[in-house]
């Protein structure tokens, strides 16, 4: 089975397109992503990545533009009978390794840790789901000694309104994601840098259509 998706976005004065084609072959998936980062001055299509994936096990990404290969391995362990999801990501070109771990305490509570190996970059996030509709996500960045906070609310069924604040950059964000009934979605977002005198909001929009071939 082949699944394709097409996404268009408007970010200020910049308009772009991106397309993804996924070929499912049993336990494996082959995915190619084509991007057009800006169509403002004419089309310039290029492959963003070519990926081979075994869901829940590994992903190998080839990024032609950077001539880079990224390896990602996933596994799950049990800690006090709770699932601990682990992800190891290594970018060969940047020589960067990132470890992610998330401990699912119960359906409403999850703790996640992100660490770039060889650096002091640690991010600790707590995820709390309240009554199945409201999600609170406080995050502490040890390298910046700063807190971030995001709050999401389900509305009109599966639609989501999300507000966020990054204390290190003083960026306040608001996002609305609409899940359409026919294989698609769209997202509208606004952000304000509170450290800038003008505090003029930056608006962007994105629409995605998915279909099977």
UniProtKB/TrEMBL annotation:
Highest taxon of the lineage: Eukaryota
Annotated InterPro entries: OEP24
GO terms classed as biological process: regulation of monoatomic ion transmembrane transport
One GO MF term: voltage-gated monoatomic cation channel activity
Name of the protein in question: Outer envelope pore protein 24
Species the sequence originates in: Lithospermum erythrorhizon
């Amino acid at each position: 089975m082949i699944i394709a998706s097409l996404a268009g976005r408007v970010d200020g004065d910049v308009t772009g397109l991106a397309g993804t084609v996924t070929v499912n072959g049993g336990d494996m998936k082959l995915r190619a992503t084509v991007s057009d980062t800006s169509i403002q001055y004419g089309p310039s299509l290029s492959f963003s990545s070519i990926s081979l994936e075994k869901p829940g096990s590994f992903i190998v990404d080839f990024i032609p533009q950077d001539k880079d290969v990224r390896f990602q391995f996933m596994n799950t362990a049990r800690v006090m009978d709770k699932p601990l999801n682990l992800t190891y990501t290594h970018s060969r070109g940047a020589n960067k390794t990132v470890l992610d771990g998330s401990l699912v305490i119960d359906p409403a509570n999850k703790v996640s840790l992100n660490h770039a190996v060889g650096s002091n970059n640690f991010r600790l996030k707590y995820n709390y789901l309240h009554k199945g509709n409201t999600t609170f996500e406080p995050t502490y960045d040890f390298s910046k000694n700063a807190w971030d906070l995001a709050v999401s609310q389900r509305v009109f069924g599966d639609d989501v309104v999300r507000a966020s604040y990054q204390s290190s950059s003083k960026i306040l964000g608001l996002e609305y994601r609409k899940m359409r009934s026919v294989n698609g979605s769209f997202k509208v977002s606004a952000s304000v840098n509170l450290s800038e005198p003008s505090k003029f909001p930056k608006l962007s929009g994105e629409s995605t259509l998915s279909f099977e071939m």
